[in-house]
Amino acid sequence: MQRALVFGATGGIGQAICVELANAGWSLYIHCSQNWRKAYSLAQGMSQKYPQQDFIPIKLDFLAENNDLKEFVSNLLPVNAVVFAQGITDYNFVSSQDTAKIDEIMRINLITPIKLTGLFEPHLIKNDYSRIVYLGSVYGGSGSAMEAAYSSSKSGLEGFAQAYAREVASANLTVNVVAPGAVNTAMNSVLGPETMEEVKGEIPVGRLAEGKDISYWVKTLLDVQSGYLTGQTIYVSGGWLI
Length: 242
Prior knowledge:
SDR, Sc_DH/Rdtase_CS
């Protein structure tokens, strides 16, 4: 049975990824950091729709200590793929940004994913093939004012994926980044409708991305036939910025 763990599964893109993978026959660990009720509800709904697959809600705070991360990974059933779709941002000038918020952004978006990757590696390389996908951002390649810490965290993911992919390629473990542009999710809705309309006008394809525009590429990277693509960042931006 193919099983993937989707971190950040209760977010807009994370939910779309779960739907896409479930429809493709994957069993899933459905992760949340806070919203247990949402994770549980997603798992229940998918279990009813796909009774031959397993859907297990799980909770982990990405600010957890190292021993908690180790215990979390050790208690899981075997997985073939790990998708890191969690993430936070904070719209602010660096000079005005709370230093604790900078720590939080870097830990949730970059540092804890790196730690978890190392913990998952011994389990993943036991498979005939395995996959890791990180959700990056177009701002990882073209930094955004007011989101300097966020942009740095996403740029760091790209660099890490490129380097780490070379360490594990011979074990048939691929490591890639899917980097969305502007997506129609709650994270971007805080910018307000006028700002989002301005952004939409800058996107060559003329619209914001929907979750399914991103989840398609995650599903493709998890496919057994994608084994020659590793260490790459795929920008799904509608031609915007990159």
